[in-house]
Design brief:
heterodimer; A: 451 residues; alpha/beta; ten-stranded mixed β-sheet; nine-stranded mixed β-sheet; 10 helices; B: 249 residues; four-stranded antiparallel β-sheet; 12 strands; globular
């Protein structure tokens, strides 16, 4: 399909459902602006430099209208029987969204004094009380200069709900929130638009666990958008775990802004989806801000795992530490494109990038790419990028101790992810993730003893 | 136990072992000495099955079986152990996990049940005390951040836990100070038994003060140029390798 035909279909689909989209989530004006901006720009294509490794074919086939619009208006979310959600984490309030809409029956009460969590979409019966409330918060429009964030516009136009998290300062213990997004419907029914807005007041603390899963084996189309605002001296630890269904398309845009001395520890693990793409755009807006971005991706079979991360330093003395570990098996393609821009005013910037890919199949593909754009002299930027196969001497060492080649390879793949997995500070979550990863990497129970 | 007959091995097209013949009976400790480039490490690696070595002629029989026909992991499970000259660091693979996986691989091969976790840890702790290793090393990655001496001690620890029938220690003494050398030698000596054979590959005589060999062989240009008892090592130390290489030339 040509770009113009795709843009036309996008506008047509929007026009067909726009009246049914909840204005307490995103106002009609902002939806209209977003869809116009996106149609004018066009959906991304692989001809664009920072989209070349993405599988964008699902965009051509997807129905953009959300699942909720396809269902009868205001019909309650259908919870699939036998839905198997990840175990809850001790001390975390859980909020579950099914196909982009809040599902209170799958959520737990939030009773933490230092923060507010709510979803923006009001239940129909309470619509009277909604009168006069201001719709949504800040617009999620992609900042100029980051055309890669354009899919956030798609989310803004069609969003059916938003998870809104506000954290107040003044409490020492970090707030703990878990968001679970479940994709149920297939792409033929409609799209799912997970949407999160997180705001941390100065000196506040939040640990946020964000999960994306699928129910059943349907081919879903998910386009999520996350906006993060970290106030002065605030700390956010954010775990993003994507294991969408094996036939799903999962597209994602995260934008974050850090004020002075803000600290953002962002750890992402992408294992699911047939076509997965994450766009992460972080602006180091205050002096002394710190970003620790750690990403792991596993691709197998025909999967595409693509991650583009842009970190922009505009204030002095901020620090970025970026780690990527990706493994491509089967015929999978795993890509990480990490771009760091240091503006004139960002003297004293310290950035480190360690990007490594492991080729674990003869037909697999790894693309790791560090990009640096520096406009000032007073910086310390280091980067390393490697793509290779398993280390022969490590492999032989394990064989010489009697391990089978299969177990040895699995162990070394496991070890390869260690630089990311070791950064998970919650033991309970780490165990869950290790079990998930072991399950992804091996049918046999051979890794279980590790855990 | 081990019978090597007329072994010829090429590396990158160059013949390194040129008709090596050596027999090591059960219960004996043999030292293989020789100048740099004589083929000592090649011999050790070929016996363990490291890829990259082309065997052009000869045979190696281990307990009556064709050793060269076995994959490296099968050799290990049959009881062949190589102590590496340069043990590799494997961050992310836990030391104790590797030990346990190795023990269980060998047990499964012999039709035995998996080792009991508690008994296993008790055994490992005991062997670690013998090797004067900190217990915290167990939970670290294999050789990760270990000093040269710690890596060598870890090799011997693995050997003590695996209890191989044939251990080949490749330059285990290199890079060790005298205290570490004594600890390593003491560890090796506890394993000496009538049912077990040891091959010590070494450049220097020093190790043999602490692990006294039954036989000493001098390897020159890929062949055994001279064999003798432990006094041969002392004579080599006194006269230098030129004495043998000159003779062999």
């Amino acid at each position: 399909m040509t770009q113009s035909a795709l843009s036309k279909r996008l506008l047509d689909e929007y026009a067909a459902v726009s009246d049914s989209l909840p204005t307490d989530v995103v106002s009609a004006e902002r939806r209209q602006e977003a869809i116009q901006a996106l149609a004018a720009r066009g959906l991304p294509t692989t001809r664009e430099e920072n989209w070349r490794y993405t599988n964008l074919r699902p965009l051509e086939r997807a129905r953009f209208a959300p699942v909720a619009a396809a269902a009868a208006a205001a019909a309650p979310t259908v919870i699939p029987a036998g839905l198997d959600l990840p175990s809850t984490l001790t001390g975390f309030a859980r909020f579950t969204f099914v196909d982009g809409t809040f599902a209170p029956e799958l959520s737990s009460e939030h009773a933490q004094a230092g923060s507010t969590v709510r979803n923006l979409r009001r239940a129909p019966e309470s619509s009277a009380r909604r009168q006069g409330s201001t719709a949504g918060t800040r617009p999620l429009t992609a900042p100029s200069g980051c055309p890669e964030a354009s899919l956030a516009l798609l989310n803004e136009a069609f969003a059916t709900d938003t998870a809104l998290i506000s954290v107040r300062g003044g409490t020492d213990a970090p707030q703990r929130v878990e968001l679970v997004f479940v994709a149920v419907a297939g792409a033929d029914v409609g799209a799912s638009y997970p949407r999160i807005q997180v705001a941390l007041d100065p000196d506040s603390r939040l640990i946020l666990v964000e999960r994306h899963v699928s129910a059943g084996s349907g081919a879903s189309f998910v386009n999520s958008s996350v906006s993060v605002d970290i106030g002065r001296g605030a700390h956010l630890t954010h775990y993003r775990l994507q294991r969408a269904g094996a036939r799903s398309a999962w597209l994602d845009t995260l934008t974050a802004v850090l004020a002075a001395d803000g600290r953002y520890s962002l750890l992402t693990i992408n294992t699911g989806g047939l076509s997965a793409r994450s766009t992460t755009q972080v602006q180091m807006a205050g002096p002394g801000a710190e970003l620790i971005l750690s990403a792991a991706a596993l691709g197998d079979r025909q999967q595409t795992q693509d991650h583009f991360a842009l970190v922009e330093h505009i204030a002095p003395r901020a620090r970025t530490d970026q780690t990527f570990r990706g493994i491509a098996s089967g015929r999978a393609r795993v890509a990480f494109n990490g771009k760091i821009t240091v503006r004139e005013a960002a003297a004293g910037t310290d950035s480190r990038q360690s990007l490594r890919g492991l080729l674990a199949g003869p037909a697999a593909e790894i693309d790791v790419r560090p990009q640096l754009e520096i406009y000032t002299d007073d910086v310390r930027c280091s980067h390393g990028a490697t793509a290779g196969k398993l280390d022969d001497s490590m492999l032989f060492y394990l064989l010489s101790r009697g391990l089978s080649p299969e177990v040895a390879q699995r162990l070394l793949k496991w070890a390869f992810l260690e630089d990311v997995v070791s950064k998970i500070e919650l033991p309970e979550l780490r165990r869950q993730i290790e079990h998930d990863l072991a399950g992804q990497m091996a049918d046999a129970a051979s890794l279980k003893e590790l855990l | 136990m081990l019978k090597i007959d007329n072994l010829h091995v090429k590396v990158d097209g160059k013949e390194i072992l040129q008709g090596l013949t050596l027999e090591i009976p059960s219960g004996e400790v043999h030292a293989v000495m020789g100048p740099n480039g004589s083929g000592k490490s090649t011999l050790a690696n070929v016996l363990a099955g490291r890829p990259g070595y082309e065997i052009t002629a000869g045979s190696v029989t281990f307990q009556g079986r064709d050793l060269l026909a076995l994959a490296p992991e099968e050799r290990a499970r049959e009881g062949v152990f190589l102590g590496f000259q340069y043990p590799v660091e494997i961050p992310g693979v836990n030391n104790v996990y590797l030990l346990k996986a190795a023990v269980n691989a060998a047990r499964k091969h012999r039709g035995l049940e998996e080792v009991d976790a508690f008994e296993f840890l008790t055994l490992v702790r005991e062997k670690m005390r013998l090797m004067r290793m900190e217990e915290s090393m167990l939970s670290r990655g294999v050789n990760e951040g270990f000093s040269g001496g710690e890596k060598k001690r870890n090799e011997i620890l693995q050997m003590l836990v695996l209890e191989p029938r044939l251990a080949i220690l490749d330059e285990t003494d290199s890079g060790l100070d005298i205290d570490a050398l004594k600890i390593v030698a003491n560890g090796v000596n506890t394993l000496r038994s009538p049912a077990r054979s040891l091959v010590l590959v070494t450049h220097y005589q020093r190790l043999l003060d602490y692990i006294v060999p039954d036989h000493v062989h001098v390897l020159v240009k890929g062949r055994i140029a001279r064999s003798g008892d432990k006094s041969l090592a002392l004579e080599l130390e006194r006269r230098g390798y030129d004495w043998v290489t000159g003779e062999a030339a």
